[in-house]
Amino acid sequence: MKEMTSLERCMAVLDGWMPDMLPVVPQSFMFTVETAGYKIGEVVRDGAKMARAHIVSQEKYGYDGCVIDFDDATIAEAVGAKVIYREDEPAIVDEQQPVLKDLRDVYDMPIPDPGRSGRLGVWLEATERLVEAVGDHVFVMGRADQGPFSIACLLRGTTQFMMDLMTEDPGLIADVLDYCRRISAVFAKAQKDAGAHATSIGDAFAGPNLISPDMYRRFAFEPERRLVEEVQAYGIPFSVHICGDTTGIIEEMGRTGARILEVDWKLDMAEARRLVPESTVLMGNVDPSFPLVLGAPADVDAAVRDLVAKTRGRRHIVSSGCAMGRNTPEANFRAFIAAARRYGSYEELCRLNENR
Amino acid sequence: MTNLQELSDAIVAGRLEPAVDLTRAALDEGIDPQSIISDHMIPAMQRIGLRFQEGRAFVPELLMAARAMKGALELVKPRLSNGKSATVGRIVIGTVYGDLHDIGKNLVASMFEGCGFEVVNLGVNITADRFVEAIRSERADILCLSALLTTTMNYMKTVIEAVEKAGLRDRVKIMVGGAPVNQLFADRIGADGYSDNANSAVLKAKELIAKTV
Ligand code: B12
Questions:
Q1: CA distance B131 to B136
Q2: For residue range B50-96, what is the model confidence (pLDDT) as tens digits?
Q3: CB contact under 8 A, A89 and B98
Q4: Which residues form the domain of A69?
Q5: CB distance B180–A165 less than 8 Å?
Q6: B144: Cβ below 6 Å to ligand 1?
């Protein structure tokens, strides 16, 4: 097998070809920023530093793709949410001062301008610069920050929105989520215009850590599905990330039509592989806490070995289940990539698929 | 005669108004306030807590139940003989410095309250000094630390060391929790207890308190 570039490797998996080895695309923005010698606080308003962080880290470790994520507050901020910035940890929305004091306020909410509102332009500049610098050979996945359900939580305050779901008119809730879907789509499409190879959202609040699979189906699914449809029709593969044990909703996540699903470590990957369409790429799912931070390199190696055995490398991008901590030991991160190379080699992939 | 099973059911179902109405009716009939709490409200929170642990109830349901419970509790509290319920134990809880996640921590706090503990909820981003100060001023039996990030979970160790330094370690049990924490980590930093959910947190706390007396 002729050696592929990182970009070719990722695109092969997306298009259903056999890659020369499994691609590794870690969710590593916090670690990445530290690797480049920055603090997250100085990076989040500076598109050049954002791109620089990814360039330095990708070059140092040689993984195959960068996910341009910096916090969960950007899209909410762009429509008026107050944000708390800190030096060491990512910025967050100040949920004590919700934008939607009343759900009906949603009818007066603005549609953001990707060039001007909040820091959307900064994130997009990062995408542009990164694509310009390495996009000819490295896979660049833009993050359009949060998905519809999560945006609603951030604009309304999570605790309040959780109770709204039980007490408010479902029609009103649907309107709120539809607004959130629309603003998410604006940012996601702008990632394509900025040159990203794929784009993505995190919709963590819609996960089973917080709401039931039934509520996911009732409230979160349709806005996600429509978002995916609209963005992919615009001509860019889309990825949905939901943290936690998504066993109860993975089938529906597959039905959103997203070409990539980023799944967390509690999900059994063999089971997931069976429950989503064959053409859906699964990205994940090593536990960022144990082994990545708390374990030893040998634990990381074992986790990756078991993971690849479960998916047999089919439409699989090796990643962490969730964002990796900035305190992930370098040796563990190196072991992670080395293990993906070893257990995801062309020979191993052939072997894993022959026996069946 | 008020059917107190209905009160319990209203709390489990997260229905504030019926919970408050039933509680008022029961008090008017002269039912012992302490018994309303111990025999009906606490078992209700235990029921919803168990459902949550088993994945049959989720955050919205637990929040609604806690709200109904608190509404009812407000009516009962002033009627207790010394104005105070016979508390199971005193808890100081907070999310550690650098960390702003509070949904899980607040659920744990609600479950503790619902199960008869006195709870002082310090909030998020709490420094070791503030935890130490609160153990003293609140005479806490148990200190509960929450962290959701692999970086901030290390700060739990800092807090435990500060408690030791302040000479309070024998006086207080320390429990830790939050998504990235596990038993291994809890043991490593010298915590007395760990649990991965709000319901078993209460069981663990009761076990720790039983050991002290
Ligand atoms: C909601 C959420 C947020 C919200 C928080 C809102 C709020 N008001 O709390 C927002 C958007 C603000 C947020 C921000 C961030 N988050 Co966040 N967040 C989550 C999410 C999706 C759910 C957490 C949650 O509320 N779960 C529901 C509750 C009920 O569960 P719980 O907290 O685990 O609590 C239960 C148990 O753990 C236990 N428990 C909890 N505390 C205690 C304490 C004791 C004593 C005991 C006994 C038990 C116990 O009982 C609880 C109830 O059963 C998780 C994903 C996940 N898998 O957990 C990520 C997650 C924790 N976040 C993460 C990250 C990285 C962040 C950010 C750093 C960056 C970002 N992505 O922007 C910022 C940092 C903010 C900061 N410095 O604190 C990562 C952490 C990864 C890591 N390696 O450290 C996670 C795992 C997901 C991810 N995106 O990768 N987040």
A1: 9
A2: 999 999 999 999 999 999 999 999 999 888 866 555 688 999 999 99
A3: yes
A4: 6-354
A5: no
A6: yes
